[in-house]
């Protein structure tokens, strides 16, 4: 199942106005509301609003606007808007089609690709979700209004993706160009997703590097997703340093430090373990995916006690 992705095509406004309904958030509505169609739902911004209550409100608004099974809706926003709107589309009247116009770097380079949608339940990220591919219209002009915090978050996922591909890793050590980085990330992720759309045969697990520790950090501390992934990667590499060649380990730590900067985080390892244990990708123990070398992603499964011990040693 191939996803249609358009980069700087100029077609996103046509898509927005061809849709029966648009979902965005309050921050984007303040900036771009004047160009959006009347049939829209403006959700509250932030990860804490990525929940089933918001999905219900979207469904109620779609019913009020007369959205039918054959209609198409569009998400206009970052990763949270895309995840929530996509999930709502996947279950509304047992599933309608949707498009995504991502406005954040993280959504352009990562979450807008692959068709994973979902909402959080308590502290468990994406505990309820679905696979539902959108047509994605990436327009990098929207990055001009992106807050610095969210730009840095997007860089986190790009850095993570660079550990999956030698060409992107080399590119990241030169002069950074956002459009080229996005194109490379879209290609890398699309190739992986096409091998394992429903996350069943293991290929898609490679995308989880940094997320086993990163997701709990995000939910406990409120840090952005991308920064949490970078910190998660740092801790996971420290936890599994015995699996890595000595010089490569230090090369990666230096590379991550360029993007983490002086960001610091405090948490209880036991709390991280509780959240990590509930992750849907686990079967027996807690799974950590790690870059054995650039492009060679491997898995280690730890018991909860081992996980806590290694995380304490890494702190």
Give the SSE string.
Answer: EHEHEHEHEHEEEHHHHHHHEEH
CATH topology name of the largest domain, in short, is Dehydroquinate synthase-like, alpha domain
Report the sheet-strand fraction: 15-25%
| Mean of pLDDT | 96
Global structural class:
alpha/beta
Which CATH class of the largest domain? Mainly Alpha
Net shape: globular
Give the terminus-to-terminus CA distance: 42 Å
Task: Summarize it.
The chain is 47% helix and 18% strand.
Could you walk me through the main structural features you see in this protein, from its secondary elements to its overall organization?
The protein is 47% helix and 18% strand. With 315 residues, it is of the alpha/beta class. It folds into two domains: 5-145, 3-Layer(aba) Sandwich (Rossmann fold); 148-314, Dehydroquinate synthase-like - alpha domain (Dehydroquinate synthase-like, alpha domain, Up-down Bundle). Strand 9 and strand 10 form a beta hairpin. The longest helix is centred in the middle third of the chain and has 18 residues, at 178-195. The chain is globular and about 60 Å long.
Descriptive keywords:
Dehydroquinate synthase-like, alpha domain, about 20% strand, single chain, alpha/beta, about 325 residues, Rossmann fold, globular, two-stranded antiparallel ribbon, 13 helices
Secondary-structure topology with pairs:
Elements: E1 5-7, H1 12-18, E2 21-25, H2 26-32, E3 40-43, H3 52-64, E4 72-77, H4 79-91, E5 97-102, H5 105-111, E6 116-121, E7 124-131, E8 135-138, H6 148-162, H7 166-171, H8 178-195, H9 211-221, H10 225-239, H11 246-260, H12 269-277, E9 286-293, E10 296-302, H13 304-314
Parallel strand pairs: 1-8, 2-3, 2-4, 4-5, 5-8
Antiparallel strand pairs: 6-7, 9-10
């Amino acid at each position: 199942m191939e996803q249609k992705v358009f980069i700087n095509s100029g077609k996103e406004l046509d898509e927005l106005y061809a849709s029966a309904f648009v979902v965005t958030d309050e921050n984007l509505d303040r900036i771009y509301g004047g160009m959006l169609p009347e049939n829209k739902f403006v959700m509250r911004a932030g990860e804490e609003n990525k929940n089933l209550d918001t999905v219900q409100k979207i469904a109620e608004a779609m019913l009020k606007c007369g959205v039918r099974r054959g209609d198409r809706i569009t998400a206009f926003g970052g990763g949270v808007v895309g995840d929530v709107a996509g999930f709502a589309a996947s279950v509304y009247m047992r599933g309608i089609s949707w498009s995504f116009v991502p406005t954040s770097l993280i959504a352009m380079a990562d979450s807008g690709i692959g068709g994973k949608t979902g909402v959080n339940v308590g502290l468990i990220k994406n505990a309820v979700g679905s696979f539902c591919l959108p047509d994605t219209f990436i327009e990098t002009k929207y990055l001009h209004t992106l807050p610095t915090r969210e730009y840095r978050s997007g860089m986190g996922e790009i850095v993570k993706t660079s550990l999956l591909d030698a060409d992107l890793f080399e590119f990241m050590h030169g002069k950074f160009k956002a459009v080229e980085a996005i194109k490379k990330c879209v290609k890398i992720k699309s190739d992986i997703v096409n091998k394992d759309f429903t996350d069943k045969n293991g290929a898609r697990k490679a995308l989880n590097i940094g997320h086993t520790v990163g997701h709990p950090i995000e939910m406990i501390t409120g840090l952005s997703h991308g920064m949490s992934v970078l910190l998660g990667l740092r801790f996971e590499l420290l936890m599994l340093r015995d699996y890595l060649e000595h010089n490569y380990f230090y090369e990666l730590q230096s590379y991550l430090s360029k993007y983490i900067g002086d960001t610091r985080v405090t948490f209880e390892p036991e709390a991280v373990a509780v959240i990590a244990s509930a992750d849907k990708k686990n079967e027996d123990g807690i799974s950590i995916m790690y870059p054995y070398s650039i492009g060679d992603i491997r898995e280690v499964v730890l018991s909860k006690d081992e996980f806590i011990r290694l995380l304490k040693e890494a702190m």
